[in-house]
Amino acid sequence: MAEITFQINDIHCEKCVEKIRQALENLAGLEEVHFDLDEKTIKIEGEADPIEIQKIIQEVGYTPIQLQNDDNQS
């Protein structure tokens, strides 16, 4: 299962989180979504297309920046 992390500096509260969560809920390949409001990040697990995730988040009014994941470090 792949893991994708996005920085979303313009999320501020649980309403922001819920808006993004609802927008992503029917996305094919999405397994789990984890938000960290303190770090302003969203971690997505599954096989969903990162470009599609970014597009959906932008459509609901936020600016996601895909971060490099640590999966390949030894």
How is this structure best described in words?
The chain is of the alpha+beta class. The chain has a single domain (13-64), classed as Alpha-Beta Plaits (2-Layer Sandwich). The chain has helices spanning 14-24, 50-59; strands at residues 2-8, 30-36, 41-46, 64-67. The chain has a 4-stranded antiparallel sheet with strand order 2-3-1-4. The protein starts with a strand and ends in a 7-residue tail after the last strand.
H/I helix tally? 2
What's the count of strands? 4
**Order of strands side by side in the largest beta sheet?**
2-3-1-4
| Straight-line N-to-C gap | 18 Å
* Count of the separate structural domains: 1
Radius of gyration: 12 Å
How are the SSEs placed, and which strands pair?
Elements: E1 2-8, H1 14-24, E2 30-36, E3 41-46, H2 50-59, E4 64-67
Short description:
The protein has helices at 14-24, 50-59, and strands at 2-8, 30-36, 41-46, 64-67. The protein is an alpha+beta fold and 74 residues long.
How would you describe this structure in keywords?
74 residues, Alpha-Beta Plaits
